[in-house]
Design goal:
alpha/beta; Rossmann fold; nine-stranded mixed β-sheet; gamma-glutamyl-gamma-aminobutyrate hydrolase activity; transferase activity; transferase; Putative glutamine amidotransferase
Length: about 250
């Protein structure tokens, strides 16, 4: 029996409760990510924050950078806005994984925060509070409430191919990409907010600002699993290596 491609899904460490336990630090990720990877034919493995090394990538066929708290603004050279809520441990662990994944040409999908981390890793920056830029709260209407808005994609891009026929996506974020760094912008909301980024020089590096794991047809997750299958059977060719992203900015 052919082994399913193993997809690492980055996780949070947050206070959680179950049974008689309350406010216990827990490694967790919404099950929707696992469900989407499984439905696409993959095996999801949850990856807690860990910046000691990235050796686990040797066991993976693909990496999914999940949504969550804000990326620390010190990583793109800005002071923190009072409304920014970062998780330094998660930033450090995910940057280590992402740097190694890019070096190994491992397929990578960034979702929401994950797309923003991709932009920062490629030398870009973020808007720390999107309503200040676009003048509305449509991308995060209320706590725990997803928004919905039109979207368009660049013809011929990976995002455009993956999302062919889709003209509306969900939304839950208060930050957004200001500068994509070395990535190509290939998707936009109707108000101009960046909705998709990619590196066309690599096998599969795609970021999406929405949450495909919560869609009935989670196409970007399916595309990641398919890219992981393809990587097994088609090793990288002898052509020139893609340009590596600039290292993220770090404090101190």
């Amino acid at each position: 029996m052919r082994r399913r491609p193993v997809i690492g899904v980055t996780a949070y460490v947050e206070p959680a409760g179950w049974a008689v336990w309350r406010d216990v630090p827990a490694t967790l990720v919404p099950h929707a990510y696992v469900r989407a990877v499984t439905a696409a034919g993959g095996r999801a493995v949850v990856l807690p924050p860990d910046d000691v090394d990235a050796d686990v990538l040797g066991l993976l066929d693909g990496l999914l950078l999940a949504g969550g708290a804000d990326v620390g603004p010190e990583r793109y050279g800005q002071p923190p806005d009072p409304r920014t809520e970062s998780r330094p441990d998660r930033d450090a662990g995910e940057v280590a994984l992402l740097t190694a994944a890019l070096a190994a040409d491992l397929p990578v999908l960034g979702v929401c925060r994950g797309m923003q981390l991709l932009a920062v890793a490629y030398g870009g920056s973020l808007h720390q509070h999107l309503p200040d830029v676009v003048g509305h709260d449509g991308h995060r209407p209320a706590p725990g409430v997803y928004g919905s808005h039109p979207v368009r994609f660049a013809p011929g891009s990976r995002a455009g191919t993956v999302m062919a026929g889709v003209d509306r996506v969900n939304s839950y974020h208060h930050q957004a990409v200001a500068d994509p760094g070395g990535l190509a912008v290939t998707g936009w909301a109707d108000d101009g907010v960046v909705e998709a980024l990619e590196d066309p020089a690599r096998r599969f590096v795609l970021g999406v600002q929405w949450h495909p794991e919560n869609e009935a047809d989670p196409r970007p997750v399916t595309a990641l699993v398919q890219a992981a299958v393809s990587r097994r059977s088609q090793p990288a060719g002898p052509g020139p290596r893609p340009t590596r992203p600039r290292p993220p900015v770090t404090s101190g």
